[in-house]
Amino acid sequence: MNIHVFTKRVQEKENLSYDDMIQAAEIIFNEETPKEAIAEFLVALHEKGETAEEIAALSIVMKSNAIHFPVTKGTYIDICGTGGDGLKTFNISTTSAFVLASSFVKVAKHGNRKISSSSGSADVLQALGIHTDFTVHESVQLLEQEGITFLYAPAVHPKLKRIGEVRRAIGKPTIFNLVGPLTNPVDLEVQLVGINRPDFVEEYAKVLSILGRKRAIVISGSQGMDEASLDHRNRSTLLENGEIKPFTINIEELGLQPASISHLRGGTPEENAEILKELLKGKRSPYYDAVVLNSALGFFAYGIAETLKEGVSMARDAIESGRAYKKLEAVIEFSQNTIKEQAI
After folding, report:
1. Is 116 annotated as a binding residue?
2. Is 265 flagged in the annotation as binding?
3. CATH of the domain at 303
4. Is residue 58 part of a domain?
Protein backbone atom coordinates (compact mmCIF):
# COMPACT_ATOMS: atom_id res chain seq x y z
CA MET A 1 0.00 0.00 0.00
CA ASN A 2 1.10 3.58 -0.69
CA ILE A 3 1.84 6.02 2.18
CA HIS A 4 -0.35 8.63 0.43
CA VAL A 5 -3.44 6.52 1.22
CA PHE A 6 -2.70 6.80 4.94
CA THR A 7 -1.74 10.47 4.65
CA LYS A 8 -5.09 11.31 3.05
CA ARG A 9 -7.00 9.54 5.83
CA VAL A 10 -4.98 11.32 8.52
CA GLN A 11 -5.48 14.68 6.79
CA GLU A 12 -9.20 14.02 7.09
CA LYS A 13 -8.64 13.69 10.88
CA GLU A 14 -9.12 9.93 10.92
CA ASN A 15 -7.24 8.04 13.64
CA LEU A 16 -5.40 5.01 12.26
CA SER A 17 -5.97 1.62 13.86
CA TYR A 18 -2.99 -0.19 15.40
CA ASP A 19 -2.78 -2.54 12.36
CA ASP A 20 -3.01 0.32 9.85
CA MET A 21 -0.27 2.24 11.66
CA ILE A 22 1.95 -0.87 11.59
CA GLN A 23 1.57 -0.85 7.78
CA ALA A 24 2.20 2.90 7.55
CA ALA A 25 5.29 2.62 9.77
CA GLU A 26 6.73 -0.18 7.65
CA ILE A 27 6.35 2.05 4.57
CA ILE A 28 8.09 4.93 6.42
CA PHE A 29 11.09 2.70 7.20
CA ASN A 30 11.28 1.46 3.60
CA GLU A 31 14.33 3.08 1.99
CA GLU A 32 12.43 3.47 -1.29
CA THR A 33 9.66 5.65 0.16
CA PRO A 34 10.29 9.27 -0.95
CA LYS A 35 11.33 11.58 1.90
CA GLU A 36 8.75 14.18 0.85
CA ALA A 37 5.96 11.60 1.22
CA ILE A 38 7.20 10.64 4.69
CA ALA A 39 7.32 14.32 5.71
CA GLU A 40 3.76 14.90 4.47
CA PHE A 41 2.49 11.94 6.52
CA LEU A 42 4.34 13.00 9.71
CA VAL A 43 3.09 16.58 9.50
CA ALA A 44 -0.51 15.40 8.92
CA LEU A 45 -0.24 13.05 11.92
CA HIS A 46 1.04 15.83 14.18
CA GLU A 47 -1.69 18.23 13.05
CA LYS A 48 -4.36 15.58 13.71
CA GLY A 49 -2.86 14.61 17.07
CA GLU A 50 -1.26 11.21 17.71
CA THR A 51 -3.14 8.44 19.52
CA ALA A 52 -1.81 5.74 21.87
CA GLU A 53 -2.39 3.06 19.20
CA GLU A 54 -0.47 5.04 16.55
CA ILE A 55 2.48 5.70 18.87
CA ALA A 56 2.61 2.07 20.07
CA ALA A 57 2.50 0.70 16.50
CA LEU A 58 5.33 2.97 15.30
CA SER A 59 7.38 1.98 18.37
CA ILE A 60 6.95 -1.72 17.59
CA VAL A 61 8.11 -1.28 13.97
CA MET A 62 11.01 0.97 14.97
CA LYS A 63 12.18 -1.53 17.60
CA SER A 64 11.92 -4.38 15.08
CA ASN A 65 14.41 -2.45 12.90
CA ALA A 66 16.84 -1.89 15.80
CA ILE A 67 20.05 -3.81 16.41
CA HIS A 68 19.50 -6.82 18.69
CA PHE A 69 21.08 -6.87 22.17
CA PRO A 70 21.25 -10.44 23.56
CA VAL A 71 20.89 -9.71 27.28
CA THR A 72 20.10 -12.38 29.86
CA LYS A 73 16.53 -12.59 31.09
CA GLY A 74 15.81 -10.11 33.86
CA THR A 75 13.86 -7.05 34.95
CA TYR A 76 15.34 -4.01 33.22
CA ILE A 77 14.27 -0.37 33.54
CA ASP A 78 14.87 2.59 31.24
CA ILE A 79 14.78 6.06 32.75
CA CYS A 80 14.66 8.78 30.13
CA GLY A 81 12.54 11.57 28.75
CA THR A 82 11.17 12.45 25.34
CA GLY A 83 13.25 15.63 25.24
CA GLY A 84 11.84 18.65 23.51
CA ASP A 85 10.97 20.67 26.61
CA GLY A 86 13.50 23.40 25.72
CA LEU A 87 14.23 24.07 29.41
CA LYS A 88 17.96 23.27 29.25
CA THR A 89 18.01 21.43 32.58
CA PHE A 90 21.09 19.44 33.56
CA ASN A 91 21.24 15.66 33.02
CA ILE A 92 18.87 14.51 35.77
CA SER A 93 17.92 11.09 34.38
CA THR A 94 21.51 10.19 33.45
CA THR A 95 22.66 11.04 37.00
CA SER A 96 19.71 9.13 38.48
CA ALA A 97 20.68 6.07 36.42
CA PHE A 98 23.93 5.74 38.42
CA VAL A 99 21.98 6.05 41.69
CA LEU A 100 19.59 3.27 40.65
CA ALA A 101 22.32 0.97 39.31
CA SER A 102 24.26 1.28 42.56
CA SER A 103 21.24 -0.20 44.37
CA PHE A 104 20.63 -3.41 42.42
CA VAL A 105 18.33 -1.92 39.77
CA LYS A 106 19.23 -3.08 36.24
CA VAL A 107 19.29 0.02 34.03
CA ALA A 108 19.32 -0.09 30.22
CA LYS A 109 19.49 3.64 29.48
CA HIS A 110 18.51 4.78 26.02
CA GLY A 111 19.99 8.18 25.15
CA ASN A 112 21.02 10.66 22.50
CA ARG A 113 23.00 13.81 21.91
CA LYS A 114 21.60 17.21 22.82
CA ILE A 115 18.36 18.14 21.13
CA SER A 116 16.52 20.56 23.44
CA SER A 117 19.04 20.65 26.29
CA SER A 118 22.55 22.16 26.35
CA SER A 119 23.90 18.68 26.94
CA GLY A 120 22.24 15.40 26.02
CA SER A 121 22.90 12.09 27.76
CA ALA A 122 25.62 11.09 25.27
CA ASP A 123 27.30 14.52 25.55
CA VAL A 124 27.64 14.43 29.35
CA LEU A 125 28.80 10.78 29.30
CA GLN A 126 31.61 11.67 26.92
CA ALA A 127 32.60 14.61 29.14
CA LEU A 128 32.79 12.12 32.04
CA GLY A 129 35.10 9.82 30.05
CA ILE A 130 32.43 7.29 29.04
CA HIS A 131 32.42 6.84 25.28
CA THR A 132 29.25 6.18 23.30
CA ASP A 133 30.45 3.76 20.65
CA PHE A 134 30.43 0.49 22.59
CA THR A 135 30.00 -2.62 20.47
CA VAL A 136 26.89 -4.74 21.11
CA HIS A 137 29.07 -7.20 23.04
CA GLU A 138 30.58 -4.42 25.20
CA SER A 139 27.16 -2.90 25.93
CA VAL A 140 25.81 -6.28 27.06
CA GLN A 141 29.01 -6.96 29.06
CA LEU A 142 28.69 -3.60 30.85
CA LEU A 143 25.07 -4.38 31.73
CA GLU A 144 25.98 -7.83 33.06
CA GLN A 145 29.00 -6.55 35.00
CA GLU A 146 27.76 -3.21 36.40
CA GLY A 147 23.97 -3.46 36.12
CA ILE A 148 23.85 -0.46 33.80
CA THR A 149 24.44 0.23 30.13
CA PHE A 150 24.03 3.19 27.81
CA LEU A 151 22.51 2.63 24.38
CA TYR A 152 23.19 5.49 21.97
CA ALA A 153 20.11 5.87 19.76
CA PRO A 154 21.81 6.46 16.35
CA ALA A 155 23.95 3.32 16.85
CA VAL A 156 20.95 1.26 17.96
CA HIS A 157 18.61 2.46 15.20
CA PRO A 158 20.62 2.64 11.96
CA LYS A 159 17.48 3.22 9.85
CA LEU A 160 16.76 6.45 11.73
CA LYS A 161 19.43 8.35 9.80
CA ARG A 162 17.12 8.88 6.82
CA ILE A 163 14.14 9.67 9.07
CA GLY A 164 16.34 12.19 10.92
CA GLU A 165 16.92 14.06 7.66
CA VAL A 166 13.15 14.23 7.12
CA ARG A 167 12.56 15.46 10.70
CA ARG A 168 15.19 18.19 10.36
CA ALA A 169 13.58 19.34 7.12
CA ILE A 170 10.16 19.53 8.84
CA GLY A 171 11.66 21.58 11.68
CA LYS A 172 8.90 20.99 14.22
CA PRO A 173 7.81 18.12 16.51
CA THR A 174 6.56 14.86 15.01
CA ILE A 175 5.46 11.50 16.42
CA PHE A 176 9.16 10.54 16.57
CA ASN A 177 9.59 12.96 19.48
CA LEU A 178 7.23 10.71 21.44
CA VAL A 179 8.53 7.28 20.44
CA GLY A 180 12.20 7.67 21.45
CA PRO A 181 11.84 6.31 25.01
CA LEU A 182 9.66 3.44 23.75
CA THR A 183 12.16 1.85 21.37
CA ASN A 184 14.84 0.55 23.73
CA PRO A 185 16.22 -2.63 22.07
CA VAL A 186 16.33 -4.33 25.50
CA ASP A 187 12.94 -5.83 26.44
CA LEU A 188 11.68 -3.75 29.34
CA GLU A 189 9.18 -4.77 31.99
CA VAL A 190 9.54 -1.46 33.83
CA GLN A 191 9.93 2.13 32.73
CA LEU A 192 10.11 5.69 34.05
CA VAL A 193 9.35 8.17 31.28
CA GLY A 194 9.29 11.94 31.35
CA ILE A 195 7.27 13.65 28.63
CA ASN A 196 7.00 17.32 27.69
CA ARG A 197 3.20 17.24 27.35
CA PRO A 198 1.28 17.32 30.68
CA ASP A 199 -2.01 16.78 28.82
CA PHE A 200 -0.72 13.48 27.39
CA VAL A 201 0.47 11.71 30.56
CA GLU A 202 -2.45 9.24 30.85
CA GLU A 203 -2.48 8.57 27.09
CA TYR A 204 1.26 7.83 27.18
CA ALA A 205 0.71 5.38 30.03
CA LYS A 206 -1.81 3.67 27.75
CA VAL A 207 0.94 3.34 25.11
CA LEU A 208 3.20 1.64 27.67
CA SER A 209 0.34 -0.71 28.56
CA ILE A 210 -0.15 -1.65 24.88
CA LEU A 211 3.61 -2.32 24.67
CA GLY A 212 3.38 -4.77 27.59
CA ARG A 213 5.11 -2.89 30.42
CA LYS A 214 4.09 -4.48 33.73
CA ARG A 215 4.82 -1.36 35.73
CA ALA A 216 5.69 2.17 34.64
CA ILE A 217 5.53 5.79 35.71
CA VAL A 218 4.87 8.64 33.28
CA ILE A 219 5.64 12.14 34.52
CA SER A 220 5.51 15.67 33.18
CA GLY A 221 7.01 18.39 35.35
CA SER A 222 6.52 22.12 35.56
CA GLN A 223 6.41 23.92 32.18
CA GLY A 224 6.33 20.53 30.49
CA MET A 225 9.72 19.49 31.89
CA ASP A 226 10.37 15.90 30.78
CA GLU A 227 11.35 14.84 34.31
CA ALA A 228 9.92 15.38 37.79
CA SER A 229 10.37 19.00 38.92
CA LEU A 230 10.64 20.37 42.45
CA ASP A 231 7.80 22.92 42.40
CA HIS A 232 4.57 20.98 43.00
CA ARG A 233 3.47 21.13 39.36
CA ASN A 234 4.13 17.53 38.37
CA ARG A 235 1.53 15.52 36.55
CA SER A 236 2.19 11.83 37.16
CA THR A 237 0.55 8.47 36.67
CA LEU A 238 1.39 4.88 37.58
CA LEU A 239 0.73 1.97 35.24
CA GLU A 240 0.46 -1.29 37.17
CA ASN A 241 -0.71 -4.54 35.55
CA GLY A 242 -2.81 -2.70 32.97
CA GLU A 243 -4.36 -0.24 35.43
CA ILE A 244 -3.56 3.47 35.08
CA LYS A 245 -3.62 5.43 38.36
CA PRO A 246 -2.75 9.16 38.58
CA PHE A 247 -0.91 10.18 41.78
CA THR A 248 0.39 13.39 43.32
CA ILE A 249 3.90 14.26 44.50
CA ASN A 250 4.28 16.44 47.60
CA ILE A 251 7.84 17.78 47.62
CA GLU A 252 7.94 18.83 51.31
CA GLU A 253 6.36 15.60 52.55
CA LEU A 254 9.23 13.75 50.85
CA GLY A 255 11.74 15.87 52.82
CA LEU A 256 12.91 17.78 49.72
CA GLN A 257 13.26 21.53 49.19
CA PRO A 258 10.95 23.14 46.59
CA ALA A 259 12.87 24.89 43.79
CA SER A 260 12.04 26.50 40.47
CA ILE A 261 13.14 25.22 37.05
CA SER A 262 15.76 27.99 36.86
CA HIS A 263 17.65 26.26 39.70
CA LEU A 264 17.89 23.05 37.62
CA ARG A 265 19.41 24.59 34.49
CA GLY A 266 22.58 23.04 33.19
CA GLY A 267 25.39 24.27 30.98
CA THR A 268 27.95 22.69 28.69
CA PRO A 269 28.59 18.93 28.82
CA GLU A 270 31.74 19.65 30.87
CA GLU A 271 29.82 21.84 33.35
CA ASN A 272 27.09 19.21 33.67
CA ALA A 273 29.67 16.47 34.21
CA GLU A 274 31.09 18.51 37.11
CA ILE A 275 27.60 19.00 38.61
CA LEU A 276 26.97 15.25 38.28
CA LYS A 277 30.23 14.28 40.00
CA GLU A 278 29.87 16.76 42.86
CA LEU A 279 26.26 15.69 43.40
CA LEU A 280 27.16 11.99 43.54
CA LYS A 281 29.83 12.91 46.10
CA GLY A 282 27.02 14.30 48.25
CA LYS A 283 27.02 18.06 47.53
CA ARG A 284 23.55 19.39 48.47
CA SER A 285 21.73 21.65 46.01
CA PRO A 286 18.49 21.73 44.01
CA TYR A 287 20.32 19.43 41.54
CA TYR A 288 20.79 16.92 44.37
CA ASP A 289 17.11 17.06 45.35
CA ALA A 290 15.98 16.70 41.71
CA VAL A 291 18.12 13.57 41.32
CA VAL A 292 16.89 12.15 44.64
CA LEU A 293 13.26 12.73 43.53
CA ASN A 294 13.71 11.18 40.07
CA SER A 295 15.73 8.27 41.48
CA ALA A 296 12.95 7.72 44.04
CA LEU A 297 10.46 7.50 41.16
CA GLY A 298 12.78 4.94 39.54
CA PHE A 299 12.91 2.81 42.71
CA PHE A 300 9.13 3.10 43.05
CA ALA A 301 8.54 2.16 39.39
CA TYR A 302 10.93 -0.81 39.71
CA GLY A 303 8.96 -2.00 42.73
CA ILE A 304 11.76 -2.18 45.28
CA ALA A 305 10.42 0.91 47.07
CA GLU A 306 6.83 0.54 48.25
CA THR A 307 6.34 4.29 48.52
CA LEU A 308 7.97 7.39 47.06
CA LYS A 309 9.15 8.33 50.56
CA GLU A 310 10.98 4.99 50.83
CA GLY A 311 12.44 5.66 47.37
CA VAL A 312 13.79 9.02 48.59
CA SER A 313 15.52 7.27 51.54
CA MET A 314 17.05 4.70 49.17
CA ALA A 315 18.31 7.41 46.80
CA ARG A 316 19.86 9.41 49.64
CA ASP A 317 21.53 6.27 51.00
CA ALA A 318 22.96 5.37 47.58
CA ILE A 319 24.59 8.82 47.36
CA GLU A 320 25.63 9.34 51.00
CA SER A 321 27.19 5.86 51.26
CA GLY A 322 29.36 6.59 48.20
CA ARG A 323 27.87 3.67 46.23
CA ALA A 324 26.51 5.88 43.42
CA TYR A 325 29.86 7.60 42.88
CA LYS A 326 31.65 4.23 42.93
CA LYS A 327 29.25 3.03 40.23
CA LEU A 328 30.16 6.05 38.10
CA GLU A 329 33.88 5.30 38.58
CA ALA A 330 33.34 1.63 37.63
CA VAL A 331 31.59 2.59 34.37
CA ILE A 332 34.32 5.12 33.51
CA GLU A 333 36.97 2.44 34.13
CA PHE A 334 35.09 -0.06 31.94
CA SER A 335 34.90 2.52 29.14
CA GLN A 336 38.58 3.41 29.38
CA ASN A 337 39.55 -0.29 29.30
CA THR A 338 37.54 -0.89 26.12
CA ILE A 339 39.30 2.06 24.46
CA LYS A 340 42.69 0.54 25.38
CA GLU A 341 41.62 -2.85 24.03
CA GLN A 342 40.48 -1.27 20.75
CA ALA A 343 43.86 0.42 20.42
CA ILE A 344 45.81 -2.86 20.76
Report:
1. yes
2. no
3. 3.40.1030.10
4. no
Does the annotation place 117 within a ligand binding site?
A: yes
226 labeled part of a ligand binding site: yes
Chain segment 60-88, per-residue pLDDT in tens: 999 999 999 999 999 999 998 888 788 88
Flag whether 335 is marked binding: no
Annotated binding-site residue? 114? yes
Q: Are residues 274 and 312 in the same domain?
A: yes
Asked whether residue 321 is marked as a ligand-binding residue, the answer is no
Does the annotation flag 92 for ligand binding?
A: yes
Q: What pTM value is reported for the model? A: 0.94
Which H, E and C letters describe the chain, residue by residue? CCHHHHHHHHHCCCCCCHHHHHHHHHHHCCCCCCHHHHHHHHHHHHHHCCCHHHHHHHHHHHHHCCCCCCCCCCCEEEEEECCCCCCCECCHHHHHHHHHHCCCCEEEEEECCCCCCCCCHHHHHHHHCCCCCCCHHHHHHHHHHHCEEEEEHHHHCCCHHHHHHHHHHHCCCCCHHHHHHHCCCCCCCEEEEECCCHHHHHHHHHHHHHCCCCEEEEEECHHHCCCCCCCCCCEEEEEECCEEEEECCCCHHHCCCCCCHHHHECCCHHHHHHHHHHHHCCCCCHHHHHHHHHHHHHHHHHCCCCCHHHHHHHHHHHHHCCHHHHHHHHHHHHHHHHHHHHHC
Whether 110 has a binding-site annotation, put simply, is yes
Known binding residue 115? Answer is yes
Residue 220, marked binder: no
Asked if residue 336 has pLDDT above 90, the reply is: yes
Query: Which residue range(s) make up the domain with 93?
Result: 76-328
- How many domains would you assign to the chain? 2
